[in-house]
Structure formats: C-alpha cells, structure tokens
C-alpha cells in the first residue's frame, strides 16, 4: 500500500537524507531535492561533532538526552563514517573546576557516561593540552565527515528505491486548493524549470525552512543563528576537547582529519546565504581556543567558515538559551494539507528527527509501517555512487 504514495523531501542535509532513508525503508516512493551538492548547506559547514550530549547536560536536558541516545544508535548503524575518538571536558581555571561536579551530575541525569580522569592522564592522551589545566572529564564524543554522513543515508535510501536530485532548487510549491500537490524546481545544470507532483512534501531545509514554508503562506518558528568556526592546519588533538563550563564562544576544538576546528560564536542572522564573518569573531576563536590548546595560536589558519543553525524559537529569544532540540510541524494546523516541516536539532540527532517526521507522514497518508532505522545498518557512503 505504501508504494502507491510519492513523497518529496526538500533538502539533502543530515535531516533530509535521514528522512529519505526512513521513508524509503517504510516502502514509500521518495524523491530528494537539493539545490546544491549533498550536504552543501548547514550540515556541510558544521563542527563535525558526534555529540555525547555533554555540551548541553547542564543547560539543555532534553537536547542532551536526544544527543546521547542518537550517538549510541549511530555507533551501531553507521559503521563506515564515524571516528569514535571520545572527548575531554577540561578545566582551565577555578571557575571551570567549580563547575565539574555540576557537570558530572548533569551528565548522570541525562544518561551520559562521563568519568573524572586525572590531569596527568589527560595530558598523556593529549600532549598539546594546556599543561596548567586543573581537571578533565571524559565523555563519548566522536567525529564524522558530514558529506559521508549524508551519503550513507542516501545510499541506503537509493537501495530502497529513492531518487536523488542534486542541483535542483525548489522555487515554488504546487497547490491544489489548500493542499500542496508538488513542487516547482529549477535545474541549475540545465537552467530549465519544471514541476514534480507528490502526495506529500517534507520541508527539511534547516534554517531555510521558513523560506520554503512561505511558498504555502505558513510560518515556522525557526531562528537562524550563525556561528563562526576556524580551521587550523594541523591536527593538535586526537579527542574532541571542550571547555568544562556552560556553552560559550571558542569553547570546543574538534579534530577533523588533519585539522582542528575551533568553534563557535553565536548570533542571529536574516540572510542565511550571505553571512558576513566579523574578524573579531575569528580572533575570539583563537583567543579562547588557545586557553585549552596553546599551540592553536602557533599554527596557520586553514579556513574560516560560518553557517546558520536552524534553532526552534521565537525571534526575540536569546540564541544561547534556545534549546538544541527539534520539532516537526504538520501544516494542516495552519490550514495547508500534505505539507510538513522538520527543523532544529543537530546532525547527531538526524535519525531521531527523521523518525518523528516520518511517523507524521505515514499517519497522514494512512500508511501503517513501523520505523526500522534503529536496527537497519546503513550502506557505506561509497555505495551512493553504485546504486
């Protein structure tokens, strides 16, 4: 029964590709539409951090629980794309050290495995750490390659019949009365515009979700929030290194291949496609990052990047206080049928986000098919080009 329904997923970042995998596994016909290359939006310019949830254990319980749950799931299903190198939260000053007990309690309440380790041991593991650190806690962080992360989901979706259309931009929604019946797309490779019909459309475009929703005259409470990251041209840490305190600017260094990525600042933006990178934000990354790893100052910058995060919240909210959880929206509540949006969350929580929105999609279409993405092992990202 499910095969008679055609669903379009707009966006081929982590959320869209995970949703495509989930729905294809449930037997629906799937078309994934992405205006650029796979993972070329927010997902492709993030920290590459497989979250343990430690960063949010004290300030955002819900987001932290989602992260550790999905972290453990991804370790089982994504066997060709993760670097399971763990993470350290390090105390640089007395304020950090005083936060340690609160941090450990927060991790325990969220189910995050965390253990206090001797400073001497931390320095043995990470010789570039500031030798004056006062404490260290180890958590199950990890690292992923964003492109390969998304390709793993898409390779599996394609194996189950999905069609993927990169370089196709959605320039409008087809409407049949008060219901969405498909999309208008621009093929950037040929310059041609055409229409694709569908029984239901999923808006998984992250910070651009509001732009797509506006085609149907509905609103979604997405708060686009930018963050600057600085990539250093040497891998100075093998584990993810975090500042042992509440989330702040320049409080994390993520190893990615042969580089180290420092992040991140946070501020609201209006234009997600033209984010100006203030030099003072770059300077902050070096200034705060070197408190944990002094050698960051002595190595050349490989690159600087900024991207908008799709936080769920009101425009008046303080972006540092907005939860990193996610939300699914059935726009039938806005008077528009056959149109849903999924946004917020982290790349780490993409599978869980996909499960939630896929449940909504199936309920709307009357399809009875359980989620199987917790158990099904993903195809290698290499298989994307073979299917």
Describe this structure in words.
Helices cover 27% and strands 28% of the residues. With 387 residues, it is α+β, with helices and mostly antiparallel strands. It has 2 domains: 2-42 and 147-221 and 324-385, FAD/NAD(P)-binding domain, CATH 3.50.50; 85-107 and 116-141 and 223-312, D-Amino Acid Oxidase, Chain A, domain 2 (2-Layer Sandwich). Strands 5, 6, 7, 14, 15, 16, 17, 18 and 19 form a 9-stranded mixed sheet that branches. It has a 6-stranded mixed sheet with strand order 9-2-1-13-21-20. A 3-stranded antiparallel sheet has the order 3-8-4. Strand 20 (326-330) and strand 21 form a beta hairpin. The longest helix is centred in the first third of the chain and has 17 residues, at 61-77. The chain is globular and about 65 Å long. Mean pLDDT is 94; it is low at 314-324.
CATH superfamily of the largest domain: FAD/NAD(P)-binding domain
Number of helices: 8
Rg, Cα atoms, Å: 21 Å
CATH level-1 class of the largest domain? Alpha Beta
User: Average pLDDT, to the nearest integer?
Assistant: 94
Q: Examine the secondary-structure arrangement and name the CATH architecture of the largest domain.
A: 3-Layer(bba) Sandwich
Q: What is the percent of helical residues?
A: 25-40%
Shape descriptor: globular
Structural class: alpha+beta
Cα distance, first to last residue?
24 Å
Proportion of strand residues: 25-35%
> Biggest sheet, open or closed, and with what strands and sense?
9 strands, mixed
Series of H and E elements? EHEEHEEHEHEEHEEEEEHEEEEEHEEEH
Q: Give the low-confidence spans.
A: 314-324
Count of β-strands: 21
* Overall domain count: 2
CATH topology of the largest domain: FAD/NAD(P)-binding domain
